[in-house]
Design a protein that fits this description.
The complex is a heterodimer of chains A (304) and B (179). Chain A is α/β, with parallel strands linked by helices. In chain A, 28% of the residues are buried. In chain A, helix 1 (3-22) runs parallel beside helix 4 and helix 3 packs antiparallel against helix 6 (282-301). Chain A contains six helices and nine strands. Chain B has 179 residues and is an alpha+beta fold. Helices cover 15% and strands 52% of the residues of chain B. Chain B contains two helices and eleven strands. In chain B, strands 1-3-4-5-6-7-8-11 form an eight-stranded antiparallel barrel. In chain B, strands 9-10 form a two-stranded antiparallel ribbon. In chain B, strand 9 (158-159) and strand 10 (162-163) form a beta hairpin. Chain B is elongated. The chains are: A alpha/beta (304), B alpha+beta (179).
Chain lengths: 304, 179
Amino acid sequence: MNVKGVKFAVLTGILLLVFAVTDPLHAQTPSASLSGVITSSAGSAVPNAKVSIKNQVTGQSTEVQTDSNGKYRLQSLPPGEYGVSVTADGFAQKTATVTLSAGGEQKADLALTNSEASPSGNQAAPSNNLPNAPSSTSKTEPSLNDLGFPASETQGNAKQQALLDKRTHMLKIHQRMGLITTAPLIATIIISANAGGKSTSSTDRTAHMVLGAVSGDLYFITAYYALRAPRVPGTKTKGPIRFHKAMAWIHGPGMILTPILGAIAYDQKSKGEKVHGIASAHGPVAIVTAGAFGAALLSVSMKF
Amino acid sequence: MNKKALLAVCFLVLPALAAPDQQWVLAQSTLTYFVSHPLHHVEGVSHAARGKGICHEGQCDFLIAVPVKTFDSGDSNRDIHTVQVTRAGEFPMVEVRTKLPETAGNSSTIHADLQIQFAGQTAQFPQVEFQLTKQGNDIHLTGTIPCKLTDFKIEPPTLLSLPVKNDIPVKVEMTWHPQ
């Protein structure tokens, strides 16, 4: 196989590998479900109440009726923030907001008041009817409000969770690609012994170049997922991740410089010349680059 | 004579019945979670919990809450991942509720039935043992809650494709101050 053939095969392999690794990006988000019981203010079940929910972002709405026990259940809902509205004969309309998370089942039990008791006809649900809120209105049971947390700390945010999910997803690919990159990188270093020096074998040099190119391509795919992962505002970097990021300032430029110097060295060797000038830095730069890459990998894998 | 006795009873007993309920406030706390991975043993600590206990008719209702994001494991990347995997973006607080008899403070060991809301789920932890020591008026309490990831339907995070163990015990150290 000539050099072009080898390059084509390697590129095809990389593309297949990348598609295999990044396929979860296109995986369908798991759906969520919402269930609960609709009761009167006296605590008795309200059958045939109409429960409507509306996605706050897409505007898509779904409706269901409660059964004889006042129970309702809505399934296969896209995760997100929903407005819930409950209407029943003789009762005032009740509204609430719930946040549904992917794959989770959320409960929202709502108590309706008699329509006479609520002339406005539209009453916001008290927070204690919502999930993740104090479970009782008991006089003696403290509520989250009693503890004095600022609202910004206690209220959930579906957008924030979506950002965190995306960040984790991209960093998982970054991690996986980093590990995959290690294999051709080590192979490139191992066969480098026969690629330079006094060796005149063009096959070894070509193999070294091809493996180096594969390593470089995989490396930049790895870097892409780290660089494009969403940042979380207000986070101060600390711990091993600081070292991991610092190493990127060494192996990043190294991964650009090494193939450039390698190409010059390859050219010189192909002309039968001894590697000279700036090209002679190819080996040392590659070693420093690979060392920084390995240190970055170990820093987040092992506890020192 | 009977009237005087009745009046005396009214003056002595009624104020006692109408006395405000005893309240407790969480003065200091250290909550530590432990996560085990084949390559790591991670501890995350938070001192940001707030709590209150209200006693009425011999029974006390306690609520302790802490923002998930306040747990510090020494690695900001891991802490953000913890927030993500526990869905703290949507459910930012851990809330612990329990009921105890007012006399519980006189014991050196208590067993509390805990209800914990975390990651959008509610789990019950019956008869969790805590050691109590009195420090003046304050009560210092220590114990470990045997939490598991599956209790809260949390998918175990992985590092190098290896998942963490299901057990995530939470060590509790709290000082309660009467109000």
